[in-house]
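Q: I'm writing up a methods section and want to include an example of the input and output format. Could you take the sequence below and give the corresponding predicted structure tokens, formatted cleanly so I can copy it straight into the document?
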Amino acid sequence: MNSWIEHPQYKAFFHERWIKYCIEGWAAFKLKEKLKLFKSDLRGWNKVTFGNIDFNIDTKKEEIEILDRIDNAMGLEEAEIIQRNKSTAELIK
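A: Here is the clean output for your methods example:
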């Protein structure tokens, strides 16, 4: 996932974890086990760093829909327009 690689802390996280794993055995076995361990660590880091993505997407969509309904009914104030634009931009990312 590109968002991991582009994150400023990813390389340090990867390096720190990768050298931490001490696996005995032949090269292919070590690689397999390190990848398995890293997968588990990466899931935790992803959740802490990016949060629950599905929940965040649903929340932003709901927020935009509510603001759209308000806009259609009576128009939006400037702060609400800014919030809708911000939420839309975050959803597109």
